[in-house]
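Name: Nuclear receptor domain-containing protein
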Amino acid sequence: MFYEAPPYGSYCELFQQHPMFVNPSHFSSASFPIVASSSFSSSSSIEFYPLKSTLSLGRRLAPPGVFRGMVELQTELVCVVCTDKAEGYHFGAVSCAACGAFFRRSVSDQKVYSCSARDCTVFFDPAKRGGCCRFCRFSKCIASGMMPHEVRAKRSSTLASGKTLERSRSVSTPSSSSSSLSPSIVVVETLVNARRQMYASREPFAKQPCYEGSLESLRLSMNEEFRMFRCLIAENQVIRELLFGDTCAEIFTDDWTQLPVGYVVREVFLMFYVFELCQSTCAGGGVQLDRLVLPNKSYVDLNEDAFRRFFNQHYDPETLARLCAGPMSSIVQMTSRSIQSAHLDETDSAFLFYMALSQSVPHEQRWPKCDATRTSLMYEVARSHEAIGADYAMKTGNTLLLVGPLLNGVSSLQEIFSLLYVSGMSRADSHLYLPQ
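Structure predicted for Nuclear receptor domain-containing protein:
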C-alpha cells in the first residue's frame, strides 16, 4: 500500500512518515521515486528522475530535485565561515551574504585586524550583538578559500564585462593598422603565460593551510623560488633577453647564495622574490591580518613575540627581532598594501612584473633589446586599456608607480640579510642565507 506524500519535506521526514514510499537504496543511485499521479493505487507505476544539483555564481542555490506536483526537495548549504545559511559563491567559497560583504569591505578598504587569542570561535549567533572577532573571521575566510584578488575596485564595476574580454583580445591579437611600434611577438601574452605556468607549479601547495614559519622556512622558500626563477629564464625568451641579451650565457650555480653581490642575476632574483612575496602576502590576507606570508605558505606575524619565534635559530633572537621588525613591516604595510590597493588584473600584473625586473638591472648593464621590449610592452598595455575605454595614461602611470615600493621592498629584504650577517650568523650558518 502506498501513502501520499506531503507537499514539502526533507529526505529524512519523508522516510520517517512514509517508509513504504521512500526506498533508502535509491539515494545511492542519485535518483528518487516519483509517483506519476496523486491519486493512485498499489498498482500505480513509479518513475525515477535523477536529482540534478544546479549551482549559480553569487545566487541562491536551486533545489536539487522536484517532485512532479507533489514533493519539492531542497537542501540548504551552510556558510563555510560562520555556518549560517549560504546564498552561493562569494570570492571563491560558499558563504552567506554577510561574510561575503565582510570580506569585500576588509579587502577594498584595506582594514587591519588584530586579536590577542587568535583562536576565537567564528559562529553565527543571531542573539549576539557586535558579531565575532574580525581577525579570526577574516582568517577563516582566507582558510576557507576566499581570494582577495577577486575583490574588484570600487569603481571598476562600471566597466562592462564584455569590455574585459575585448581587452584580452586586443592584447593577444596585433592590429594590422598598428604603428611601427607593433612588436613581432606579443610580449604581454608571453609574460601572462609564464606567470600562469608558475602558479600552476605552486598549485599543489596552494590548498595547504598556512603555518607559522621560521628562519629555516625563509631559506627553503628562497631556494624553491630560485629554482623556479631558473626555470623561468630557461623557458621564457623575454626574461632571458633581459639578463643575457643574445648571448648563450647561463646561470653558473643552483644556489642563489653563491651569486656575488652586485651581480645582475642576483639583483633581478631578489626583485623576483619580493614580487612573489608580496603576491603571496596579498593572497594570504597578510595586509588585513598584519602578517608576512612567504610563497611556501609559512608566515610570520608582525609582533615582537612572533619575531622572536621566527629568529629562534639565532643565538640572540630578541635583538634580531627588534632590528628586523621595521624591514618586515615595510614589506607588508608599504609594498604589499600598495599592490593590493591597485587591484591589478592579469595583464597589469604581468606588465608590472617585467618593469620591476628590468628596473633592477643597472642602466649601464641593460641590453638594447631590453629597452625595445619595454617600449613594445608599454604599447601593448596602452592599446589594451584603450580597448575598454580606460584612461591608459593614468592606468599605466599608476602601475609604474608601484615599481618604487617594490624597489623599497628589495632594500628591506637586503637589510634583513645584512642584519643576519653582522649579528652573528656569519660565524656559523650564514652561507645558508647570504652570499659570502
